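Supplementary Methods. Inverse-folding protocol.

Structures were first reduced to a discrete structure-token string of length 402. This string, shown here, constituted the complete conditioning input.
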């Protein structure tokens, strides 16, 4: 996924630059904005100039003070005419006409092959390729479900495809589209009578709050989903997958909310559930991944958010180049991005660059557009005065420079 604009167009501004512009437009000096967001003036200055990364909790606080969305601060890689922008418009149109699919009912064998392909593209972070398939696939699975007279499996397929669509919209910074997709996913999940499908929708709904920096609301969504799921009395691996996944989302939300006790509680519950899995590897169903490997990655990320980067680095070092077995690129790429954040926080710039290189190798499309990948890369690029070839290459791929 190439995010850089065509030749002759300006590159999209990074988070720090956007913060400075928005601050000045509001008539705020750095001291006043820093006071409103409870950070130091020095820290704000370094964020604006690219010497420190704009972390999710800080961006959430700044967005609230500046009366904008977090997406507005992070910037939008798709401001220029491109295939990605056209495909996003096609996806938006398909989601809008959710009860009026234009596609015919396909052969079931072909549909199942397309569903497997979409799930694999999502797991491998091949977002552009997934975008090419989603509009037609959404229409096809919906046409099948509408013709199937309430078949739960058919509606489960609709919910799963909306889950894939959410992953794309979330990752490419389209919060309004992501919100609309989640509402459609919830609509489809309610037709399935499958509590795990409803958990998948709740997991993404909490993700919309996470993206917006509304961590309390996201945690409340997770708590509600856990209570509702436990009432369904689901047993076996599905129970572990659903509850474990909800607790992992809770880990992210609580750690970004700087709620150490809630973070520890969600981590411990996830670890206990992982011990109950009847298989040794992580499970991947309904676009949810859960097991010991993924739980370890979420715990590592929580240490970064809770400003304990040395503990994160201690966890990360044995995993560099040797991630937990069985995890897809979507999770391994995120591991390396979080490792880069942790190493940058302990001033290990060489280690941060090495981790980013691994992220670009394993999950290139994620690494190009993930906000924290871009933030770490920007800090390294500014700090090293654009002198390193690998940094230059990654910065160009991410659209941070021409």
């Amino acid at each position: 996924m190439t995010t850089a604009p065509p030749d002759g167009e300006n590159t999209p501004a990074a988070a720090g630059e956007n913060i400075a512009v928005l601050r000045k437009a509001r008539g705020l000096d750095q001291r006043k904005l820093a006071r409103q967001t409870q950070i130091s003036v020095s820290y704000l200055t370094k964020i604006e100039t690219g010497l420190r990364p704009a972390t999710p909790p800080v961006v959430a606080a700044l967005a609230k003070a500046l009366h904008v969305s977090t997406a507005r601060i992070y910037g939008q890689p798709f401001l220029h005419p491109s295939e990605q922008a056209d495909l996003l418009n096609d996806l938006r149109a398909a989601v809008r006409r959710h009860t009026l699919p234009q596609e015919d009912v396909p052969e079931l064998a072909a549909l199942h092959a397309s569903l497997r392909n979409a799930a694999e593209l999502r797991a491998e972070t091949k977002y552009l390729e997934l975008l090419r398939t989603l509009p037609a696939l959404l229409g096809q699975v919906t046409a099948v479900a509408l013709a199937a007279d309430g078949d739960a499996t058919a509606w489960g397929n609709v919910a799963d495809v909306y889950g894939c669509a959410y992953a794309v919209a979330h990752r490419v910074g389209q919060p309004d589209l992501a919100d609309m997709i989640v509402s459609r996913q919830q609509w489809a999940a309610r037709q399935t009578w499958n509590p795990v499908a409803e958990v998948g929708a709740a997991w993404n709904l909490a993700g919309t709050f996470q993206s917006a920096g509304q961590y309390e609301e996201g945690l409340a969504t997770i708590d509600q989903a856990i209570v509702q799921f436990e009432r369904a009395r689901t047993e076996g691996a599905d129970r572990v997958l659903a509850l474990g996944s909800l607790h992992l989302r809770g880990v992210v939300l609580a750690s970004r909310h700087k709620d150490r006790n809630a973070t520890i509680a969600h981590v411990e519950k996830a670890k206990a559930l992982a011990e109950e899995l009847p298989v040794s590897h992580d499970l991947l169903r309904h676009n949810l991944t859960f097991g010991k490997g993924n739980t370890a990655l979420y715990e590592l990320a929580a240490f970064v958010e809770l400003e304990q980067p040395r503990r994160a680095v201690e966890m990360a070092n044995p995993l560099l180049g040797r991630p937990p077995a069985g995890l897809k690129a979507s999770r391994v790429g995120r591991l390396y991005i979080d490792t880069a954040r942790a190493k940058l926080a302990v001033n290990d710039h060489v280690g941060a660059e090495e981790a980013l290189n691994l992220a670009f190798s394993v999950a290139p499309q994620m690494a190009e557009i993930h906000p924290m990948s871009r933030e770490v890369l920007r800090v390294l690029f500014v700090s090293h005065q654009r002198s390193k070839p690998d940094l230059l290459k990654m910065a160009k791929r991410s659209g941070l420079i021409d």
